[in-house]
């Protein structure tokens, strides 16, 4: 798979050697944060899993526990996030979002709207194995209404494939009839079409919709829906158009609001570092006229900033 990630597997990788470097960085008085973040941010997720195993084998200790006890604050959150296997990290973030105090809807929305069908199936499996309950059941216990139903559809990871030529025009007309054209909104139509069609198909539907409605589908959703359902539908539309563009916007928002939303920033930088960070960076630069790298520099500091910049990978 051609990866558009900023983090690539380290070429002369030696798990045993890396485990020794990390142990040395944590042993004795004081912790060498620099050595830790430089090493772990420059290894792929699969390599970090090997380092974890080598560390346990050499020292009889759990690397993640040691990292937690030696590091603190946002740097700790970031490094611990890097140590999860990618799919388990998504499952963990969903579980935390559902089981924490109050539901963190933005996390449910981000993950379920942006991951591929295969990823979502793997996440659901990892979730069940790790937490002993079904992702779908937990979502249902914590959400309601049309918002809940669309989340459940997305959690199936069963989108159709390809473009069905015969349905493009029909879908666009149905969406128009369900929203702009009638008094009150037929949310079921929106949920069914946006939750089940492929991204390629939806892009064609959105073009047809614009011709019929005279506006973008996003504008109609903003007019017709509110709250979590609106946020989820918008995320689904943006991801159908371009997943990297969706993340460029999300990462911008995480840093540009009053006070940085570090949880979102960490989640995006960690989960996209090996998937599409290069595309996110290119779109970010084009859209906002500055590099993602420079925004991170302005908005964060210390070792935490350094680690984020490593994951970003370069200044555009």
Kindly summarize this structure in a few lines.
With 316 residues, this protein is mainly α. The protein is built from 20 helices and no strands.
Characterization of this structure:
It is built from 20 helices and no strands. It has 316 residues and is mostly helical. Helix 5 runs parallel beside helix 20, helix 9 runs antiparallel to helix 10 and helix 15 packs across helix 16.
Helix and strand succession?
A: HHHHHHHHHHHHHHHHHHHH
Distance between the termini: 24 Å
Name the assembly state. Answer: single chain
Mean pLDDT figure: 95
Number of strands: 0
Strand composition percent: under 5%
Overall morphology? elongated
**Residue share in helix:** over 70%
Summed up, the helix count is: 20
Low-confidence blocks of residues: none
Largest sheet, in brief, is: none
Query: Structural class of the secondary elements?
Result: mainly alpha
GO cellular component, one term: cytoplasm
Organism: Cyprinus carpio carpio
Family: Belongs to the annexin family.
GO molecular function: calcium ion binding; calcium-dependent phospholipid binding; phosphatidylserine binding
